[in-house]
Amino acid sequence: MQRVGILGGTFDPIHYAHLAIAEEARVVLGLSQVMFIPTAQQPLKQQHFSSAYQRLAMTKLAIADNPAFTVSTIEVERSGVSYTIDTIQALHEDQPDIEWWLIVGSDSLATLPRWHSAADLVQLAHFAILERPGFDLDWSALLEQFPALAKRSVRIQGPRMDLSATELRSRLQAGLPVRYLVPDAVASYIAEQQLYLA
Ligand SMILES: Nc1ncnc2c1ncn2[C@@H]1O[C@H](COP(=O)(O)OP(=O)(O)OP(=O)(O)O)[C@@H](O)[C@H]1O
Ligand SMILES: O=C(O)c1ccc[n+]([C@@H]2O[C@H](COP(=O)([O-])O)[C@@H](O)[C@H]2O)c1
Question: Domain Cytidyltransferase-like: where (predicted)?
Answer without folding.
Answer: 6-171
